Amino acid sequence: MSGKTVGFRDEIKFMLVLATVCAVLLLVARAGVGSRADLSMVAITSAGQICKLELPEEPVAAVAAFNEHFVSRTRGRIQLWQSLSRSNVWLCQARGAGMWAELALLFAYDHMHRRIIGMRVIEQNETAGLGDRIGEEAFYEQFDDMDAGSGVEMKAIRVKGNQFDAISGATITSRAVETVINRALGQIEKIASAAPPAAGKEARP
Amino acid sequence: MKYLRILWEGLIPNNPVFILALGLCSTLAVTLKVENAFFMAVMVGITTIFSSVCVAALRYYIPFRFRLLSYMLIIVTAVIAVEQLLKALFPEVARALGPYVGLIVTNCVVMGRLEAFAVSHRPLEAFFDALGVALGYAAVLLSIASIREFLGNGTLWGLHVAPDFYIPCRVFNSPPGAFIVFAALLFAVNWLRSIVRRDS
Amino acid sequence: MENAIQIPLLTLLFSAAISENVALYYFLGICPLISISADLKASFNMGLTVSLVMLITTAANWAIYHLLLQPMELEYLQLLFFVLIIAATVQLLELFLDRFFPSIYEVFGIFLPLITVNCAILGVSMFAVLREYSLIQSLVFAAGSGMGWCLVICIIASVRRRINIDAVPVHLGKTGITMLIAAVIALAFSGVSELMSGGF
Amino acid sequence: MQALLVILIINAFVLILCALVAFSGQLLRQSGDADLVVNKESARKVGCGQSLLPALAEAGIFLPAACGGKGTCGRCEIKVIAGGSSVTPMETIILEPQRLQSLARLACQVKVRQNIEVEVPAGLLAAKFLWARLESAQVVAEEIKTLQFNIEDDGELDFKPGQYIQIFYQMPWERVLRAYSISSSASTKKSFSLDIQRISGGLVSNYLHQLQPGDQIEVSGPFGEMYLTDEQANCPIILVAGGVGLAPLRAILEKLRELNFPQPVWLFHGARSRKNLYCEKYFHELAQRYASFKYLPALSNPMLEEGWVGSRGLIHELLEQQTLTGVSEAVAFVCGPSPMMQAVTKVLVAKGLASDRILTDPFDFS
What we know:
Chain B has one domain (about 1-140). Chain B has eight helices and two strands. Chain B has helices at about 1-10, 25-30, 35-55, 65-90, 90-105, 110-115, 125-155, 175-200; strands spanning about 155, 160.
């Protein structure tokens, strides 16, 4: 029944106008949002907590203080910093797939003793009420001074030193944490085994 | 008056979740905490209203064979814009809702209202219909979330409200719990409806 | 990236189909699960269609993401591109079936537009990209998820067929009883998932 | 720069997808012809791949489709004897199971894939596609215009009083259909008139209101089950109209006037206020001239300054108060909004009129 008087070109024209309007709207919406600068602040605060460092609360001062303690080694999805005071301590921010979206973890690793010093979740989008409990203090505590010579392992009930309790009902999230940490550990091993280069001051908060 | 009726139609007699069985995915998935459910409902509401009004205004210009593509384009724009807004205003909530915000795109409540109502009505009518449906959706979401959060955690909007002797029943935090609460609530609603119908 | 995840394909297939079932674990694609599952044959057909669309769109979206969006650093537009790809694929499939397989089209036809708003399809595409699967892994993951979804809808449909003659509480209605069936099946699946994820 | 790039990429992407959909649509469209047999007559060739509604139009049979082929109005009901595609869910909603079993289908939902044999009700075969030119437009009441059309070329509209036609309106990408009852006498076949109430925001009614004399429109028709047959013309007639629902009843009334009102005729016309009441003067004159014709208007909301001395209230209340002689042999024609039609039908049945002698035409404001 539909009339064919209006051709393909007009239809395409309409679609393109619509697409342009949508694209402009998208860009405006994206530009209107503040940057995610606060996120790196979370990382710095977490680093302070893990390594028991007193970092100032004011962002600029905190970044400066952080740079006094750590030097950046790699960037990308797995970022590494080496401690300037204790060269066997590495700080690692690792990103990986969580259950729904990416999650980012920050942990400190003692390369000489092969132990994780502490771990914090910086960014996560896990199921509210289940998976997001990886952000709780009780979950962090398991990683304090954890043996990680042969990687960490998720278990329903922890028996060995390198194991941590899976959160009941959130197996996928727990396994994601396991995968992300183990992948990052492998990376640290590779970089740390190579002779640590001279401290080039390249700061990246 | 007429607009109020359209609003009412969407809210109760055509409730998107209980009566039309639309938008079940998010109804079940984000109802662990009342707070999340609330923001989810608000965002779905904004998306529904925006896309309904847009489609109603463009209803004679949207080419029939590219209908699906145009609808999706409009919905995605609304969703991404709302998502960015939420990130700017309530970063905490945006983190908690994360993945489900993107999945609003495929929430059938939005698409369902476009196909069933907005394409054949004027923008103002579409606005009220979308508003009614959004309110109906919010009502369901909030009631399920309250029940689940109370039974599963003993809290409401993060506040501890359950008596001390109550031991939270974790099954309501898990997927099957959502199904069970939904079925129970559906039973209650249908029962009430039948009573109302008998009385009138 | 540095070390791509090495997951045995068979494990990937089965975990996607069973232990991390897209419908019962992630709550995706629930609406058709409830509304179509009244008839076993239709359910099976719907399951097959969803699997097919899932396979095609996951491949297409993988290519779009890795060949266009990632090099251009436009990852934030992934939702827009994915959804449009899905809408176009569904429409093309509809035309194709209409032309070459009219008998299949008559069975599937009405479901096809519904598939556009099936969140399982979008979800699988997003997961495949998020978890950095390679193309082969993505395809296996999509196939497994599709099979898993098809399995669940067929199980629900068969259970519903069995209780068809039983007296279901009137107020529970079809939606309610389907929800309860889904709850029981979800519990069973979560048991299987616990078993597979190293409960021993 | 980045922003321009993003816009460009999205545009290109949408363009590619649209082109893909459009060209595969062209490429994949089923070509070739199929034989269409209507009412066991000789076969006609129609294109495959379309639905039966346009295929029948190709063969010169115009079915009514108030919803524009979406399968929601149920007016294009026909019987498919052989070769139809399977029943769609839309049809199971509109058509009852026993009707489906007796092969009834909605023409807009059946796809032509092979040779097909259908049975179209005889009443629908008379419908034609015509061009008409606006002769004159006259405002008869607030927001109501009577439009007089002349049929172009040598076409003729052979309709029965009470039937309606469909008007096509070409939107940018879509043809919109609306049904309007013919209000002029059935004896003139070269012209017809329509009473159009302008609905605020209504698409076709606004379009028709802004037409200028000389403008052309496309129509198809006549359609409709509610019309006055010759034997009914010799029964007492009760006409009940609500608002612009008067239009088809005017055509019936014209027919009866040409027959000099052989039997008693009552015309009940309900409106909100006097400015919504139309043709009032003409009917009063008729009532004076013919003893067997009675004109009974009622206003539900008369304005004070209008000085209305007639009946007040809803039309079915007025109907209830009246004593009509020989009701049981009468035939009633009711046209107006659905709640009014239900109320009137109830009153008429209570007065002793068999429900099969009450003919109605649903009339929606859309």
